[in-house]
């Protein structure tokens, strides 16, 4: 079968009419496959995977200046989630904040994530100008170990009249196709020498959402 130079339309000859219906069916199937793929991509962009967690479910601490608190939230702390993990992670198919790989991200793309320490309470006196620090590292598991892809955090200093602190941090990160190898290691430290510190129930808010793909949607 010959094709025209304009739009590559079929130009059947006398011997091609029997093959024309088959050609049209295959063309329709190809068009349908591309449309369905674009519909899925558009749905992913307009309803992006989003996770919001508020925890912990039980107070953590008190702990001193020599301790490092590693945040990990269970699925009981989830207040909103519209996606699952496929394949399931170490804790199943429900996403969560954890330092274990394969527990948060469900696809490649550009992700925005952040935290808010809503309350961080001194068990006693407050050391004037002592710091409170949250450090979060997004790592990827490789044959040679964990490679830090992104690191962010927030440090604040507490005045002696303040018993609780509120501070936030956020970042964006590009997750590649090996999204099951990524983890989030989030730790909290302090320099309040006058007393230990406690993270009360629901003292940490964590969120992440997929902003979009790193690739453009194909145009037919």
Molecular structure report:
The protein is mainly β and 220 residues long. It folds into 2 domains: 2-44; 48-212, Sandwich (Jelly Rolls). The chain is built from 1 helix and 14 strands, in the order ββαββββββββββββ. It has one helix at 20-46; strands at residues 2-3, 10-11, 50-55, 60-63, 69-71, 78-81, 109-117, 121-122, 130-142, 145-158, 167-175, 182-190, 197-199, 204-212. The protein has a 5-stranded antiparallel sheet with strand order 6-3-14-7-11, with no helix packed on it. The protein has a 4-stranded antiparallel sheet with strand order 5-12-9-10, with no helix packed on it. Strand 1 (2-3) and strand 2 form a beta hairpin. The longest helix has 27 residues, at 20-46.
Brief summary of the model shown:
The protein has about 220 residues and is mainly beta.
Task: Give the biggest sheet.
Answer: 5 strands, antiparallel
Taken from the alpha-carbon principal axes, the silhouette is elongated
Report mean pLDDT, rounded to a whole number.
85
Low-confidence stretches: none
Number of helices: 1
Distance between the termini: 23 Å
The percentage of residues in β strands lies in 35-45%
**Rg on CA atoms, Å:** 26 Å
Any idea what the CATH architecture of the largest domain is? Sandwich
Q: From N to C, what is the helix and strand string?
A: EEHEEEEEEEEEEEE
Main-sheet strand order equals 6-3-14-7-11
Quantity of strands, as a count:
14
Helix content: 10-25%
Structural class: mainly beta
The number of domains:
2
CATH class designation of the largest domain: Mainly Beta
Q: Which fold name corresponds to the CATH topology of the largest domain?
A: Jelly Rolls
